[in-house]
# Entry
Amino acid sequence: MTGFTEELRPTGANAVTFCTIRTPSDMAFPFAVVRFLWIPTSEEPSAPIPDATAIYAAGSEAWIVGDSGFIGFPCSAGEVEEYDQLVGYLTIRRSGGITEPDLVMEVLNAMASAVAEELGCAEEAELPSGAPQRIEG
# Structure
């Protein structure tokens, strides 16, 4: 984890891959990818999230749309001062989008919590322990 956070900390607006999951039947293309990206707080998406199929109580915002889950949370541990919001996103390559959004959000929240803990911003991130509560959708 330390290697990942050392790579993530100075990146500014560049996404950094946290993990890639491949299936034995199709090693050429990832089944799922989790990435983290810094954004300025001034660029936080504002609710309601267009086309979101589910919205969750986690961090500053969390939602599922199409084949991806997103979770945004404040984190002042980056090296680029104006980038103080971290967004984690999980994309699954599956036709028809995500069929179990609560499970996807629980996995993404666990990964985001681990990253926030390692970066030293777990308290300000306000990520729940366990599964985030669905508040819409």
In short: The chain has one domain: 2-136. The beta strands are 16-21, 32-40, 54-57, 61-65, 68-74, 83-92, 133-136.
